Amino acid sequence: MDPDHLQILQRYSSCDVADALLDLGVPEGGFLPGLVMWSPRQQDGHTRIAGPVWTVEYVRVGKEKQAATDQQPLTPAGHYVDSAPSGSIIFVSCPEDTLSACWGGLVTKRAKRLGVIGTVVDGRMRDLDEARHLDYPVFARQVAVARPTDDLKVHKVNQPVIFHDGHGARTIQPGDVIVADLNGTVLLPAQLLKATIQRLKKLSDVEEVKMRLLDQGISLTEASANASTQVA
To answer: Can you tell me which residues bind substrate (predicted)?
Structure first.
């Protein structure tokens, strides 16, 4: 993945990226609902992360999940976090009914040391004070107090995972890009990265013209019409 593209992407908010993805035909602009910023501050401040996804999937060991766990686990030797690449965003997938935390203080400390950009948890996180002390970005559905229960196991790492948003299922591929900030979390398919950046530049130019015209007291209707003609 071109690091220059990621550097450019870092300039834009999750809202900007979602608008570009909508124009490119991505449903809901790639929005991953429910995954909000808890650290370094709860949906506040200027923290923004943008980078390639490195996935971790937890499954529940038991009769209802036996089909999934019968497969050969695709996990590294040792703790998964030790294999997380620098410059990545760890995406942790948890069973929907999980009340315990699938991310906590020890993995936060190790990930920070390894140069991981941040973590997005499709589930719960804990040790919020430790993440905030380290100024480490964590996005999650909610917080919890208990560690993962004994029936929760890491089943695969750096493999496709499924995100359920209440309206359907989406596959998150390793190497896809996540952009997240106080507004929310957006998934950008890797193959659309270049096109998204091109679209972002155009949308940004249009937005800048609109803002300038609004500062002059022009109506939003007129500003929108004028901006479209002024930006080729």
So the answer is: 104-107, 126
Tokens representing 128 are 């919020």
Indicate the pTM of the whole model.
0.90
Contact 35, 166 (CB under 8 A): no
Burial class of residue 225, CB neighbours in 10 A (0-12, 13-18, 19+): middle
Would you say 156 and 75 are in contact if contact means Cβ atoms under 8 Å apart? yes
Cα(51)–Cα(135) distance, rounded to whole angstroms? 17
- Single-letter code of the amino acid located at 207: E
Q: Binding site residues, as ranges?
A: 104-107, 126-127
Indicate the annotated binding residues for substrate: 104-107, 126
Annotated binding site for Mg(2+): 127
Q: To the nearest whole percent, how much of the chain has pLDDT over 70?
A: 93
Q: How far apart are CA 182 and CA 162, in angstroms?
A: 23
Prior bond of 40 cis (ω within 30°): yes
For residue range 92-116, list pLDDT tens digits in order: 999 998 999 999 999 999 999 999 9
CA distance 8 to 144: 35
